[in-house]
Amino acid sequence: MKVSVGIKALNEESHIAASLGSAVEAVRPFGGEVILADSGSTDRTIEIASHFPVRIYQLATPSERSCGTGAQLAFQHAEGDYFYLLDGDMVLDPAFLPAGISFLESNSGFAAVGGRVREVNTDTEEYRIRANTVQADANWRPGTVDRLDCGGLYRMSALKELGYFADRNLHAFEEFELGARLRERGWQLARIDVPAVDHHGHTTGSFKLLWRRLKSGYAAAHGEVLRGAIGRPHLSLVVRHLSHIRNSIAVIAWWAALIILGFLYPLLALTLLVLPLLLLVVRRKSLRLGLYSFTMWNTYAWGLLAGLFSSRKPPERKIDSVELAAQLPERTQASHRP
């Protein structure tokens, strides 16, 4: 089989039909397959998915859900020569798979390739900041990159060298961690100037979303990446290239300095407390965006410590799942709009 598209989802009833429909159409010219890895949805995600010619696997233990678990669940059932990972709130552009496969077949030293990502939701503080980051970060522009955030097309033979696709212990940054392991083994990754996905993202208010990420473990993911890399060859790549780790260490050092100065020079400590917030407001050109950034980085500083001391399961261990019945392809031809 030429290509497999895996879609990880949790309560994505608003977008799952568009996501599945785009994937089914994208793999059709290659005789490929689409796999839905569901992390225990309680809305209509499974009901909608059952109308598509896809295989559906659901976590046997929903409490084990994480970004890494969902990605690995999709991968462990994939049979294609190439594997594309898609989120349930993304729509795959039909132009990407032909271009991506052509690139990998012409460039044997590359393990994976991504394309342009369009952020559809830019109404919240987080996604307004992310949209600006996309313009500045080289990893979002065409060329050689160190990760493929928001998905990419991977060479299955390269992934099998690693033993597993995504670390089940990670609540985020699974694409970065995968890229680090691939690059440590000598593989390269690229992004090409071809549209890949439309990403709808969250519509939850940013501060509420930040609180949800703190409770779910998402905010601790960079600490989880660091913990998983300790004692392994890709540790240096993780420390050098995952800026969340360095930023969180800086914030922790800042708080330590505040505590010390608070006893010795209270006025200086007060100045040091306010200065970073003022700098962020100026940088973001918005009081609200500056306040959100200030809150976010303090949240992630706490998350670094939480993730660093979190427990781990062997990432190569098979994830227990249940295969759910889907309608046959011939019954779905008139059902792509459930």
What distinguishing features does this structure have?
338 residues, alpha/beta, 10-stranded mixed beta sheet, 10 strands, 17% strand, globular, disordered C terminus
Strand content: 15-25%
Using the CA coordinates, give the radius of gyration: 21 Å
What string gives the helices and strands in order?
Answer: EHEHEHEEHEHEEHHEHHHHHHEH
Shape summary:
globular
Overall residue-averaged pLDDT value: 89
* Helix content, binned percent: 40-55%
Number of strands: 10
Gap from first CA to last CA = 28 Å
Q: Which secondary-structure class do the elements indicate?
A: alpha/beta
Q: What is the tally of helical segments? A: 14
Query: How many strands, which pairing sense, and closed or not: the largest β-sheet?
Result: 10 strands, mixed
Uncertain residue ranges: 327-338
Q: How does this model look, in words?
A:
The C terminus is likely disordered. The chain contains 14 helices and ten strands. Strand 1, helix 1 and strand 2 form a beta-alpha-beta unit. The two termini are 28 Å apart. It is globular. With 338 residues, the chain is α/β, with parallel strands linked by helices.
How are the SSEs ordered, and which strands pair?
Layout: E1 3-9, H1 16-27, E2 33-38, H2 45-49, E3 55-59, H3 67-76, E4 82-87, E5 90-92, H4 96-106, E6 110-119, H5 125-136, E7 143-145, E8 153-155, H6 156-162, H7 174-184, E9 188-199, H8 206-216, H9 221-229, H10 235-241, H11 243-264, H12 266-284, H13 287-308, E10 321-324, H14 329-332
Parallel strand pairs: 1-2, 1-4, 2-3, 6-9
Antiparallel strand pairs: 3-10, 4-8, 5-9, 6-8, 7-9
Helix pairs in contact: 8-13, 9-13, 11-12, 11-13, 12-13
